[in-house]
Design brief:
Layout lengths: L1 H12 L3 H17 L3 H28 L20 H7 L3 H4 L3 E5 L6 H14 L4 E5 H10 L3 H8 L3 E7 L6 H14 L4 E6 L6 H4 L3 H13 L1 E5 L8 H6 L14 H4 L2
Parallel strand pairs: 1-4, 1-5, 2-3, 3-4
Helix pairs in contact: 1-2, 2-3, 3-6, 7-9, 9-11
The protein binds adenosine-5'-diphosphate (ADP) and magnesium ion.
Length: 262
């Protein structure tokens, strides 16, 4: 009994609380199963490793700041045939993150850009990578209000940086330069998952500087998958079916409702 208490307090002192808590039960079951010393040790260490993994996962999930939790299995690929399901499924291997390859999702509002980014962010976190979700406006406001290296690290240190909603608001020169710094710092070291409703040819206007825009695109696109999404907004699918709304790009309305989705 004294041995047990001593071992428990030693484990606690080492910060191995879960092992301390389960020590008595594990010793009993090891005796019952006649486990070798090594098998017992490995089983006990497994308890601590598992709880550490769970803790790290929870912390990563909290700090990622994802706006919602939706997975790729929640995504209806039949609704949006312009997205290659097999290609998106391949991304689940997370090889693109290991190789610091970027992913750019282009397309009009409501086609699932944020959904896919968030789903891949969740996959990345489950795969043991750090992730941070933000929008381009938030980055611009954050760094322009007061710049610091610590703030900058928020955008450069996570293995995956998701930048959502690029294109709704042009950036001033200062913010555009900060954005360039982020993309440069992450080049070949961390993945950027970026969503935009503007094609690359419009990015010059977005950064109010053609030279800077070219330099950003040069780094961003060197190792990058680009997914060009076409189609109707999922948010408006019922309105289109009802004939209340017509997609200005495709002309889809109630008459073509069958093609819009269920
Ligand atoms: P975007 O970022 O392209 O504007 P979102 O990803 O925000 O679009 O999608 C808008 C809403 O519609 C979200 O709630 C999203 O989960 C949902 N959604 C979009 N496309 C699909 C789809 N193909 N299957 C299921 N839900 C979808
Ligand atoms: Mg979005």
């Amino acid at each position: 009994m004294l041995d047990l208490e001593l071992a428990q307090s030693q484990l606690t002192e080492l910060g191995l609380g879960h092992m301390a808590e389960l020590l008595e039960a594990k010793v009993s079951s090891a005796t019952e199963k006649d486990l070798s010393y090594l098998a017992f040790l490995s089983e006990l260490l497994g308890v601590e490793i598992e709880s550490k993994r769970k803790r790290t996962y929870e912390i990563r999930l909290q700090t990622a700041g994802l706006p919602f939790r939706k997975s790729l299995s929640d995504f209806d690929f039949n609704f949006c045939p312009s997205i290659d399901k097999a290609f998106i499924s391949e991304l689940r291997s997370l090889a693109f993150i290991s190789s610091a390859t970027n992913l750019v999702l282009l397309g009009p509002p409501g086609v699932g850009k944020t959904h896919i980014s968030v789903a891949l962010g969740l996959e990345a976190i489950a795969g043991g990578f750090s992730c941070y979700f933000t929008t381009l406006s938030k980055i611009a406001n954050d760094l322009s209000s007061s710049y610091s290296q610590t703030k900058m690290r928020k955008y450069t240190s996570p293995k995956v940086l998701i930048i959502d909603e690029m294109g709704y608001r042009p950036l001033d020169k200062v913010a555009a330069n900060y954005f360039f710094d982020i993309i440069s710092a992450r080049y070949e070291t961390g993945t950027v998952i970026l969503s935009s409703n503007k094609g690359f040819s419009k990015w010059g206007d977005l950064f109010s500087d053609q030279v800077l825009s070219t330099a950003i695109l040069d780094r961003l696109l060197h190792h990058c998958h680009v997914i060009n999404i076409k189609g109707n907004s999922y948010r408006l699918k019922d309105r289109i079916k009802q004939g209340i709304y017509t997609n200005p790009q495709t002309g889809d309305n109630a008459k073509k409702g069958e093609e819009v989705g269920q």
